[in-house]
């Protein structure tokens, strides 16, 4: 136990357990400050806008409309959990053609591609 100036004593482990509940700023490999909370990495709204190519204004509007990726507020700071953002990205609908699902039409005259059903 370590004595404190006011006559209280507290163990270092107890202090450390309380500290881990607050966001901690760390340096990323790119030299950017990254917020971490209980082991989860958090991104700023600017980082999310760059990563997803969605404008900052759209992200802000989506927050007001309760749409888009899940976010957390730490006081006035808005942060997005990296794992939650990845899950949200993967849940978004995909478009485009899957070339393995295309088959040639029997009629050369029509010259169109048909999708394989089912």
Describe this structure in words.
This protein is α+β, with helices and mostly antiparallel strands and 118 residues long. The protein has a domain at 24-91: Arc Repressor Mutant, subunit A (Orthogonal Bundle). The protein has four helices and nine strands, in the order E-E-H-E-E-E-H-H-E-E-H-E-E. It has helices at residues 12-19, 45-52, 56-64, 82-91, and strands at residues 2-3, 9-10, 24-27, 33-37, 40-44, 72-74, 77-81, 102-104, 113-115. It starts with a strand and ends with a strand. Mean pLDDT is 74; it is low at 15-23 and 27-32.
Low-confidence stretches: 15-23, 27-32
CATH class of the domain at 24-91: Mainly Alpha
- The helix-and-strand class reads alpha+beta
Helix content: 25-40%
User: How many β-strands, per DSSP?
Assistant: 9
State mean pLDDT (0 to 100 scale): 74
Shape designation: elongated
Residue fraction in strands:
25-35%
Strand order of the largest sheet: 3-4-5-7-6
Could you give the topology of this structure?
Elements: E1 2-3, E2 9-10, H1 12-19, E3 24-27, E4 33-37, E5 40-44, H2 45-52, H3 56-64, E6 72-74, E7 77-81, H4 82-91, E8 102-104, E9 113-115
Task: Sum this structure up briefly.
This protein is α+β, with helices and mostly antiparallel strands.
């Amino acid at each position: 136990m370590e004595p404190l100036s006011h006559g209280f004593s507290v163990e270092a482990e107890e202090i450390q357990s309380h500290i881990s509940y607050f966001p901690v700023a760390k340096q990323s490999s790119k030299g950017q400050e990254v917020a971490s909370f209980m082991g989860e990495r958090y991104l700023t709204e600017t980082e999310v806008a760059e990563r997803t190519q969605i404008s900052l204004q759209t992200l802000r509007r989506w927050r007001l409309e309760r749409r888009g990726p899940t976010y957390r507020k730490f006081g006035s700071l808005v942060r997005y959990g990296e794992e939650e953002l990845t899950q949200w990205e993967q849940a978004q609908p995909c478009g485009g053609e899957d070339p393995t699902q295309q088959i040639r039409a029997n009629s050369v005259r029509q010259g169109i591609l048909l999708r394989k059903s089912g």
